[in-house]
Amino acid sequence: MMIIRRFTLLAAIAFMGCEDAAQAAPGTIAFTHVNVLPMTSETALADQTVVVVDGRITEVGTAGDVTLGRGATVIDGTGQYLMPGLAEMHAHVPPGDNPPRDAVEDLLFLYVANGITTIRGMLGSDYQIPLADELEQSEVLGPNFYVAAPSLNGTTAPTAEAAEGLMRAAKESGYDLMKIHPGIPLDAWDRMAEVAEEVNLTFGGHVPADVGLVHAIETGMSTVDHLDGYVQAIASDNVQAQVNAGTISLGGLVEGVDERKLAEIVQLTIDNDVYVVPTMYLWENLYGFPDADAILSQPEMKYVSQSQRDAWRRQSGGNARGGEEEVAAYLALRKQVLKELSDAGAGILMGTDSPQMFNVPGYALHRELQVVAEAGISNYEILKSGTAWVGKYVADHLELDGSFGTVAAGQRADLVLLGSNPIDDLENLTDRVGVMVRGRWVSRKEIDLGLAALAAKHAGQR
Question: Are the beta carbons of 320 and 285 closer than 8 angstroms?
Answer without folding.
Answer: no
